[in-house]
Amino acid sequence: MPFYDYSLASGLLCGILFGYILESAGFGSACKLTAQFRFSDWAVLKVMFTAIVVAAIGLYALSATGVIAYPDIYVPPAYLGGAAIGGLLIGAGFAVGGYCPGTAASAFGSGRLDGLVFMIGMVVGVGLFAAGYDTFGSWVTLGAIQTSRLPELLGISEPVLLALFALLAAVIFWLGSRVERKLGGALTAEALDAR
Amino acid sequence: MTERTHAPRPLWHPLVAGIALGVTLVFTFLLTGNGLGASGAFARTAAWLGGESAKTNAYLSAFWQSGHPLNNWIVWVVVGVILGALLSAINSGRFRWKLEGAAAIGAGKRIATAFVGGVLAGFGSRVAAGCTSGLGLSGGATLAVSAFVFLAFFFVTGIVVSRIMPKGA
């Protein structure tokens, strides 16, 4: 394992699960998503961090028991400059447009046409990057380092790092819920319906 | 508000949604060796729409060679995301055709912000070779250094740019 199943059915199945969860979390709504940046709704950080911790523990358990091996699954290369510039642009795009690539698709699926407009904008954005590839292409591999994973970079064993991450997730839930209460509470499905 | 017979059902608790997403991510890694992503689908769509000019483009030609977008796993993931969200929204009474944010800033302005945001995200996803899901979430699950650099810049920029955006946008 893994099965390397890149069939269309596999893509569709993973996508449907992904989209169902995104919508159920409220991530088909630009209002809900961007409220994270104003700290009035912490669902984005809570859900994302929980998912990262759960999946990281799952992958660790699978690799520790020999079900999968790390070289066999895709770990993004450590192009730290490219990741920083991309993060900056996608963060700006999220604040301006209300979505990121996955959540725009989830928004469109739940009937929001602004999600579709965002998706069209993305295709144009890719086109602009491609048109200026002579200039922008070199940004992708900026700041490359050899160590691609955190445990090796920080010199911390994986179980300890995962425990620290789980603790950080708990802090995000505790702090987030406190701030949410102060700022009027997280956005409910009822509240979003009126927007 | 449009008239309706029943109220939308509540959203999932963030802990429930987070665990479900984490389990789905592990399942995706087991099935494919890769995590969940989205932005690659838009690159393939751009290459396909670009036609002849994409064929000779230094960046898009590689995507062009991988054929019609619908022959790609990642494109079906995005098709699946739309369908999954549709299922969930209908099932929970949350489905509404609307232009969210138009009530606050007007339809024209909302279309403009959604479009500009999309352009920024589309461009950025090619620089980072991934997006919030492909690099931030899936890369984060593999404890990739670049994922956490991405997420830090993503959040800080989002917070800063939010301050200068009109409310409700």
Radius of gyration of chain A: 19 Å
Largest sheet of chain A: none
Supply the number of structural domains of chain B. 2
Largest beta-sheet characterization of chain B: none
Order of helices and strands of chain B: HHHHHHHH
Termini separation of chain B = 18 Å
| Secondary structure category of chain B | mainly alpha
Number of strands of chain A: 0
What general form of chain A does the structure show? Answer: globular
Summarize the helix and strand pattern of chain A as letters. Answer: HHHHHHHHHH
- Kindly give the count of domains of chain A: 1
Percent of residues in β-strands of chain B: under 5%
**Rough outline of chain B:** globular
Oligomer type: heterodimer
Contiguous low-pLDDT stretches of chain A (5 residues minimum) are: none
Count the beta strands of chain B: 0
SSE class of chain A: mainly alpha
Query: What is the residue-averaged pLDDT of chain A?
Result: 96
Description:
The complex is a heterodimer of chains A (195) and B (169). Chain A contains ten helices and no strands. Chain A is mainly alpha-helical. Chain A has one domain. Chain A starts with 7 loop residues before the first helix and ends with a helix. The model of chain B has no long low-confidence stretch (mean pLDDT 92). Chain B folds into two domains: 13-95, no CATH class; 102-168, no CATH class. The two termini of chain B are 18 Å apart. With 169 residues, chain B is an all-alpha fold. Chain B has eight helices and no strands. In chain B, helix 2 (39-55) crosses helix 4 (73-91). In chain B, 69% of the residues lie in helices and 0% in strands. Classes of the chains: A mainly alpha (195), B mainly alpha (169). The interface between A and B is large, with 134 and 132 residues.
